[in-house]
Amino acid sequence: MLFTRESDYAIRVVRALKDGEKKSIRQICAVEEIPEAFCYKIVKKLEHAGVVEIVRGAGGGCRLKKQLSELTLYDTITAIEPDFAVMDCVHHFCSRNTDKVTCKVHKELLSIQYAVEDLLKEKMFRDILDD
């Protein structure tokens, strides 16, 4: 499975905001080595998913909207990649599936997909960002 760089950066954004304080995009980017233009796009997606809150204006910035004890890796990754998959055929048409036969590879990949999703749902940021 390949998580995109965007998902990696989203996890970094959450890490930068772990203290609950409001931070500017520039501050987040400096600490987490994220290109500013990319960070704006990521933060917007995280806001849409309810992960962060954007405060506009002169003293603006963003902060986590959820507590670290309520936020999972799954929440963050699916905010960026709602249809992430170990392989395209997991969520899309597999040409090997027919009405009578299911592709054994597809079936195995689907099992792996569910296992990865379950693992990501178990990983709370509270547990992985604890200093």
UniProtKB/TrEMBL annotation:
<protein>
    <submittedName>
        <fullName>Rrf2 family transcriptional regulator</fullName>
    </submittedName>
</protein>
<dbReference type="GO" id="GO:0005829">
    <property type="term" value="C:cytosol"/>
</dbReference>
<dbReference type="Pfam" id="PF02082">
    <property type="entry name" value="Rrf2"/>
</dbReference>
<dbReference type="InterPro" id="IPR036388">
    <property type="entry name" value="WH-like_DNA-bd_sf"/>
</dbReference>
<dbReference type="InterPro" id="IPR000944">
    <property type="entry name" value="Tscrpt_reg_Rrf2"/>
</dbReference>
<dbReference type="GO" id="GO:0003700">
    <property type="term" value="F:DNA-binding transcription factor activity"/>
</dbReference>
<dbReference type="InterPro" id="IPR036390">
    <property type="entry name" value="WH_DNA-bd_sf"/>
</dbReference>
